[in-house]
Amino acid sequence: MQLQTLSDIIAVTQNWLDRDTPEMDAVRAIAIEEQTTGDRIVTEAVELTDSQYILLAGHFAVTTCTICSTVRLEGTFEPEIAQESWKQLLLRHPLLRAYFSIPPEATSFKDYQLLVMDNPPTPELSVTDLSGDDAATQERQIQAAVDREINQAWRLEEWSLHRFFAFRLSENLYELALSLHHVIADGLSAHIVLREFLEIYGANL
Predict the structure, then answer these.
(1) Of 70, 84, 85, nearest to 169 (Cα)?
(2) In Å, what is the CA distance from 57 to each residue of 39, 52, 71, 102?
(3) What is the dihedral of CA 109, 150, 154, 124, to 10 degrees?
(4) pTM of the predicted model as reported, rounded to 2 decimal places
(5) Which of 38, 80, 139, 161 could bridge across to 181 with cysteines, CB 3.0–4.6 Å?
């Protein structure tokens, strides 16, 4: 689906406030169970908020819907502890566990389903070692990575719609980045998520 005109956006968002339909009742009742390695993941369909319909239109209408924030950390950075902290963060925020189900026959956003997992596997937090580079090269590498994140394409039907990644600048200096799709958070929310991650990480040290 690609939106070219305002009328296209209006067409796909028509009836988006009409929540009392048999289709929406069915969406509210859906519960999908998936099997992973020994752990059951329950995925529940939840109702989209009004703003998410507009942000879905933005996903198809603009070149990027990514919000990316970075923070510089002084001290040791333990990837295993960061991974566990990410897992705890996921349990706090349902939208970090969310993705979309898009039926092949979907003709408007009212056909989309927002699915929230209750116990998703934690994605890998990659750490890129830039400690052998000078400061200017490090900054260029980090900026290039952020630019790639901002311009990369998200698949709404694939979890997750956010990522953490980090750069090792020296033995006791790291740059941590969070990128996410605007449909699950705005800029302020992204900063809150990043702050909470650091609070959880600090408590786990």
Answers:
(1) 70
(2) 35, 9, 30, 14
(3) -140
(4) 0.80
(5) 161
